[in-house]
Task: structure prediction
Amino acid sequence: MHQRGRALLSIAGIALGVALGYGVQLMNQAAVEELTAAVRALSGDADLEVRGGRSGFPDDVYVRIARLPGVAVASPGLELRAGLAADVAPTIDRAAASAPSTIRVLGVDVLRSAQLQPALFIAEPGLRYALLEPDTVLLSAAAAQTLGLEADDALVLVVGLARVRLRVAGVLPASALRGIAALTDVATAQWRLDRLGNLNRIDLRLAPGARRAMV
Result:
């Protein structure tokens, strides 16, 4: 009976030790995940990104993903490269090797993207509402400088065989949008870039306590 009792106590002690170690591991993992999520929130990075291929995916995928348990914010996007018309900026020497022939166009849901990237409009909060008007864009600082454009100028893009004229509503700070790029509303991007019903990116911010692997 003494030997059996000692064996049972040993098994119970080992089980408690394993449970304690596993509990500490879970606590550490949760703390690291919460800290990492806080860093991503401060830097404006999404917790998860859904990306499609070259042709993208139907925009009803966005609705299904936004309803997933653990998803707090889902921001749809359409990111494409569009050609620049030859007369987009007459001051540019098109023969120069550094002269850009395309521009990166990012279509976002302005209100939802502000929840994921608060620094995007922190310098001028009013710019986000300018994108709600049709056929408007915000240029990156690099694009404005390279193309010689400013507010109320026209950005002329080549989409297929058509020329698309968009009004420059303003210029974003260099820290908000990098490279030769233009930011517009996702509906404008779908309509004017001939991609109706399509997206190719969804940024996700998870709810507090949600595990990325589970989502």
